[in-house]
Structure formats: structure tokens, C-alpha cells
Task: structure prediction
Amino acid sequence: MIKKDIGFILKRFNFRETSVIATIYLHNFGKIKGIFKGFYRQKKEFSTPLDVFSLNEFVFYPKQSEIWLVSQAELISGFSYLRNNLEKAAVAGFIFNLLDKTMQLWDKNKYIFNLTFHSIRLIENDHQKAFYLFLIKFLTLAGIKPELNHCIVCQKLIKGSLFFSTKRGGLLCRDCRKNYKDYKPLSQEASKTFSYIQNNSIAAASRIRLSLRCQNEISQIIQKFLTYHFDFSQKGPGFKLIA
Ligand SMILES: [Zn+2]
Result:
């Protein structure tokens, strides 16, 4: 059955002389692989350069096999600001690479699609905020939330100074700190910012102010979580921005 949907090009490569195979993240179908037969024959059905990062509307034929035939593609937005700014492109590249590495084929998630769309748009004005907003919300959706209210070991409510264990993924109380070594102080600002982004809409979260110190603290937590839960390299281009 023929279907229509919008989606981002995560990656692409040329196939034989005239065709393209692309990994696409679709709003309703999740991640798919599509073949664009005769793409380089200037067919009128393909009115898009199929650039990585671009948002397009596709007409395609879902099936059981891994690669789906895409018969039409039309450009919606190429996000031109990603093509003339290396830092902005690096953030988009990190987001798309993470989606490609962590999403299974056909695993649909409209919330992650919308988060991706808003984050890519936010990159135009504030690429660092877009980076943190995407990652905190993405991890939360994946069920990976740092514990920022109670002690991760004994569940006691934390009062006063905060000490965060990245290995355990949460705060440690005064008593439990005696038994563990791997913790670092966490500022109230970073803890509140993390919780605010987790618990508020994308629109509200995108208005938050992020100080450099706060970015550094959050970045350390996120890097550890990505490595631990997804085996995702810490050397992504996004983290170089704030290293
Ligand atoms: Zn404790």
C-alpha cells in the first residue's frame, strides 16, 4: 500500500550509477531505509537534492524487506543555516547520528520526531541550547533520568549541597557518600535546569537561560549517560563545542 509521510534524511549514499539509498527518520513510520531509483536521471518525481539534514515529503511503499522503494520526494526545508556554519552543522550532525545509532528500523516515535524538528529549528538561533534541550529530552524519553531529588542509594530526600554520582546516575546523601568515591558537586542551578527541561514542554524549555557553567555540568552527566546506556562515543562533535 502506497504511503505519504514527512521525514529527515539522516544519511545517504549513491547506489549504482543513478540511484540513491538513504536512511530517513519519518514522522509516522520511524527510521526507514529507502531507495530512490533513477534519482540522478532528473526525474520530476524527485524535486529535492536529498541533502543530509533536509526535511522532505516522501511517497513510498512499506514492506517487510529492509529497503523500501521511494517513488516521490519533495523538499520542505533544507535548513540552509546548517550549511554555512560549522558549529551549527556539528550539533545537527550529532543529533542525527544519535538518532541513526539508537533508533531501530520502523520504531516510530512522534514525540522524538517533533523534538528533532524543534531542536533543528532552535539551532538557527541558539545551537548550544538546542543541543542540551534535545539530549535531555531524548534521554528522558528513553527512560534515562538522573535522580535529582532523592539519594540514589538510600532514597533519602536530599537537602543542602548536591553531590552527583555519574556512575550511579543520581545524587548521594551525606551518609552514602562515605561508602562511595565517584561523585562530584553539582550546582543547584544545573540540577534545576536539568529538571526544568525534563518536566516542561519543548517550547517552555527552549526559553530557559543556560550559563556556561551549567552547560559544562550538564554535559558531563549526559556524556556519561550516553556512553553507559547507548555505548555512544563521547567524541561526538556536539561535545567538542563545550569541551
Ligand atoms: Zn543515601
User: Anything to note?
Assistant: The longest helix spans residues 212-230. Residues 151, 153-154, 156, 173, 175-176 surround zinc ion (CB under 6 Å). Strands lie at 3-15, 19-26, 30-36, 46-47, 55-61, 67-77, 147-151, 162-165, 170-171, 184-186. Helices lie at 86-102, 110-123, 127-141, 174-177, 188-199, 202-205, 212-230, 237-240.
